[in-house]
Design a protein that fits this description.
Elements: H1 2-55, H2 64-75, H3 82-93, H4 101-117, H5 122-134, H6 136-145, H7 152-163, H8 167-182, H9 185-191, H10 195-235, H11 238-241
Length: 242
């Protein structure tokens, strides 16, 4: 009887251990997968920004690190994640090389306000705004068609500024008017309703990106080794592989 009881106890402990292992391992594996995915999304967004900086000769006047910090600051006052800002706003606006320095920073912020108020996507709002600021004389009317109004006097002032090589002043005038009409929209959305929950979700996402980076860095050497072995096997003849 004692032997049977010990055997039963051992089996129960083995079963409990197996259940505990599965209960702990599965969630940890799932968390690791989500973390790697979050890091991958962020890394790809940063890569697009850095490609834009290289292709334009850094005409914007900011480094990748500075632009990433800007995106993080904008995330904290909007419903857009920093990776979405980098991909949908920063990378898009970098293609408009006449927008640089302080005007670029203002344009990114206004792009988030426009996308929020007009209930559109960030990429479309950024491109529309980028076109108008890059060449106001040719493209300011596009903003008007989207419902963003400028007076005839403002349009005339913009034209005069551009013709006298004062593009930055023309951009400031446009951005100032946009700030009056749409400023604060992104921040208001982040503070209303379930905005706080969205902010919490994005903060957790940032934390997971850090975990994902550590996991990816650890796995990359192994992945390269497996890839090299697979390529070596692929190069062998069918008879040799068998």
């Amino acid at each position: 009887n004692a032997s049977r009881s010990l055997s039963k106890f051992g089996k129960n402990m083995q079963r409990t251990g197996k259940n505990l292992s599965m209960g702990l391992t599965a969630p940890l594996a799932g968390l690791a997968a989500l973390s790697v995915k979050a890091f991958d999304t962020q890394a790809k967004a940063v890569a697009q920004v850095e490609a834009g900086l290289r292709s334009t000769g850094n005409a914007v006047g900011y480094t990748s690190e500075q632009l990433q910090k800007m995106a993080s600051a904008l995330q904290s006052n909007s419903l857009f994640g920093d990776e979405e800002i980098l991909q949908g706003a920063t990378a898009q606006l970098l293609t408009f090389t006449n927008i640089a320095g302080e005007q670029f920073a203002k344009t990114q912020k206004i792009a988030l306000d426009l996308a929020t108020r007009l209930d559109g996507d960030l990429k479309s709002s950024s491109i529309m705004l980028g076109k108008a600021l890059n060449d106001p004389v040719a493209n300011l009317s596009a903003l008007s068609r989207a419902g963003i109004q400028f007076s005839e006097d403002q349009k005339a002032m913009v034209r005069t500024m551009v013709e006298t090589n004062r593009l930055a002043d023309a951009q400031d005038l446009i951005l100032e008017e946009l700030e009056k009409q749409y400023g604060g929209s992104a921040k208001a959305a982040a503070e209303a309703g379930a905005g706080g929950l969205k902010q919490m979700h994005m903060a957790i996402g940032d934390l997971m990106e850090g975990f994902g980076e550590v996991i990816t860095d650890a796995l990359n050497p192994f992945a390269k080794t497996v890839k090299a072995v697979a390529e070596r096997l692929q190069s062998l003849s069918a008879s040799t592989r068998l």
